[in-house]
Design a protein that fits this description.
heterodimer; A: alpha+beta; 8-stranded antiparallel beta sheet; 8 strands; B: about 0% strand; elongated
């Protein structure tokens, strides 16, 4: 089909990169924002702007809050559909859990409820969750959208397309394409090492854009590769669901044997029994961690078979100083409080899996690495965006001459995926500060602002790329850069006006989550304005080649996703 | 584990060592040498010196990362400092090539 390996790889790289590049752009951009998801949550929910807290007392606080958790309404609807009729009036609680990290002021509590009347699935269950203020035990309102951890973060792996998990599948395919694009990119790159540090902004657009594409692709190659790969392994159970389909009986048997081997009951006994002091168990777990030379705080606390004689409590150490999320679990018998099992060091396979998962989900305490991840993610965005620009640059004259619209379509989608996406992300922040505090379904309106803004950006991009018909630079890029600058400044101003937490105050008080978001917004505004001005010069130079020449629009690609 | 203050210093030093190491490796290449020092000639042994210096600085950076953090985190930090350093060197070469002359100020 192709004359050489290089040509076939070039074809693969171009077309898979183009089609799935739009999805990858979303993954990398919202993935980068997810590095600071907790901080964005603090910005979006001003009531939670206080210092991170450790896991509060179970006996004195959590024991009273867990029983108040209700199953989510939409999960109940889905369960009714699975059962094909009404559910029992009361769904029995299966387990409770609490998860916190060194960046969480508020604590998320989770519960699983058994759906007892599904004839096809004896293990059918639904979930519920609440968020509490661990200082007082107050339950926070349910409809305040955590924009960072509940919107941007799921966006980067599910695209918020939940029908039949379609979003997960598209993202998985994109991650696979990313791996293929990286390998094929290395094959078609003629001078990987000789041009490792090469970026020539003064050369013509096609050359300088390709330089930047190669540079950003190669220097962060390990990052790109490992994140695409670990993203796939994290959702391996969705992509290869043998454990819940063909091999479900075997998987269940395995889980049962694994539990028995630890002395943990796999099933409840149906005999009631109260829970011993969990605080005493936490103290014992901490003592054991310290004895192993790794003192730490509780990251994850899990009560299985709630209220049953077979109940057990598992206490996991927070992995703040390690890559793995949590670990070193100690399991206790619920009614007696005695230790059932202390997890030994892991076998290599599960240690590697935990390492890959942990490096991707990054709940460790390391601010430099966090920022380096943002840099890696934005480098990925720059790489993808320059890929689009190069595609258009290479074809626009030919397509304009032939009266074809291919380059224009790609450019319009590129504007939507690059600057349009940033506009949407800023629009949800602006909406968050503008909508009335007591608006019902406030979170839903915030999400509507996000999708609405993105749709508007798409419309604008489709309209303002008409210049491609004459092989000129589309003004859509420049205009959306100005929109980014304006919206980012507006978000900072609105935060100051509605909460009083302006930068002078937050920096002086050391409120870095809020100050950091504000500063990042201002930096994005500055970069977007710079990019817009450069684009203006470029557009004039193209319209009047005799005039100013030799300026660069390469700053655009970076500015666009800062 | 070192205390937070010295940990920050170690990491800062690791970043600097990665940047300098990649800078030296870049300057061992003829095009980049020309960008920084113009037509000034250099000997083959000087090129070798630059390569060795670059490799040593990158190893030093890894050692500093390992001093600062648990090995699992340290390796991630080190790989990412390489990415950051390479970007910094490439952008410096593009926009402020003379700034890299500092790295070879001792070479006549």
């Amino acid at each position: 089909m192709f004359q050489s390996l290089r040509l076939s790889m070039a074809w693969l790289h171009t077309w898979f990169g183009l089609v799935l590049g739009y999805v990858l752009m979303i993954c990398f951009f919202f993935g980068s924002l997810s590095v600071f998801d907790r901080e964005i949550d603090r910005w979006a929910i001003p009531e939670t702007r206080f210092a991170p807290q450790t896991m509060p007392s179970y006996d004195r606080m959590l024991a009273a809050i867990f029983p108040r958790i209700e199953p989510e309404a939409e999960e109940l609807d889905a369960a009714r559909a699975r059962v094909g009729g009404p559910l029992p009036a009361e769904l029995p609680v299966m387990n409770w859990s609490a998860y916190t990290t060194h960046r969480d002021p508020v604590l998320a509590l989770f519960a699983e409820f058994a759906v007892t009347n599904n004839p096809n699935d004896p293990y059918d269950h639904v979930h519920g969750h609440v968020t509490v203020d661990p200082r007082s035990g107050a339950v926070l309102p349910h409809d305040r959208l955590k924009i960072g951890s509940e919107f941007f973060y799921p966006m980067h792996y599910s695209l918020h397309l939940h029908w039949k998990n379609l979003g997960y599948w598209i993202v998985g395919l994109a991650a696979l394409a990313m791996l293929a694009a990286l390998v094929s990119g290395v094959v078609i790159h003629r001078k990987l090492f000789a041009e490792l540090f090469t970026f020539r902004p003064a050369k013509r657009t096609g050359r300088s854009v390709l330089d930047l594409h190669n540079l950003t692709g190669v220097v962060a190659l390990p990052f790109h590769f490992v994140f695409a790969l670990s993203g796939l392994t994290i959702f391996a159970a969705i992509y290869l669901p043998v454990g819940s389909t063909m091999l479900e009986p075997l998987a269940m048997k395995h889980a049962a044997i694994a539990a028995e081997a630890r002395g943990l009951a796999f099933l409840p006994s149906d005999e009631k029994a109260p829970l011993a002091s969990v605080d005493a168990m936490v103290a014992e777990a901490k003592r054991r961690w310290a004895a192993r030379g790794m003192p730490g705080e509780v990251g994850f606390l899990h009560v299985n078979h709630v209220g049953d004689r077979n109940s057990h409590v598992s206490i996991y150490r927070a992995g703040s100083d390690r890559v793995a999320l949590v670990g070193q679990a100690v399991h206790f018998d619920g009614p007696s409080g005695r230790v059932l099992h202390e997890e030994p060091p892991q076998a290599p396979a599960s240690a590697i899996n935990d390492f890959l998962t942990g490096l991707h989900l990054q709940h460790f305490e390391h601010w430099l690495l966090r920022w380096l991840y943002v840099l890696g993610g934005l480098t990925g965005c720059a790489c993808i965006a320059t890929g689009f620009l190069f595609f258009v640059e290479k074809r626009k004259r030919r397509h304009a001459a032939a009266g074809r619209s291919g380059a224009r379509v790609v450019d319009a989608l590129g504007v939507t995926a690059v600057t349009g996406m940033v506009i949407a992300a800023l629009a949800i922040l602006v909406a968050n500060r503008l909508l009335p505090a007591d608006l019902p379904h406030r979170g839903g309106w915030e999400e509507a602002a996000f999708w609405g803004a993105w749709l508007l950006a798409f419309g604008h991009a489709a309209w303002r790329t008409a210049a491609l018909r004459e092989a000129r630079i589309a003004p859509a890029w420049r205009e959306q850069c100005w929109a980014i600058a304006a919206l980012a400044v507006l978000a900072v101003v609105l935060n100051a006006a509605t909460t009083g937490d302006h930068l002078l105050h937050t920096v002086a008080a050391g409120q870095w989550p809020v100050a950091g978001v504000d500063l990042a917004l201002l930096a994005s505004a500055a970069l977007a304005a710079l990019a817009a001005r450069r684009l203006r010069r470029r557009e004039r130079a193209v319209a009047d080649p005799a005039g100013v020449a030799g300026t660069t629009d390469t700053a655009t690609t970076e500015a666009a996703h800062a | 584990m070192p205390d937070p203050g010295s940990k920050a210093l170690l990491l800062l030093a690791a970043l600097a060592a990665s940047g300098a190491g990649l800078g030296w490796l870049a300057l061992a290449m003829d095009v980049h040498w020309a960008q920084v020092r113009g037509a000034a000639a250099r000997s083959a042994s000087q090129v070798r010196t630059l390569r060795v210096l670059g490799a040593l600085a990158l190893s030093l950076s890894l050692a500093l990362c390992l001093r600062a953090d648990h090995p699992t985190i340290a390796t991630l930090v080190w790989v990412m400092t390489l990415a950051a350093g390479a970007l910094a060197v490439a952008f410096a070469l593009a926009w402020r090539p003379r700034a890299l002359a500092l790295l070879v100020a001792w070479l006549r």
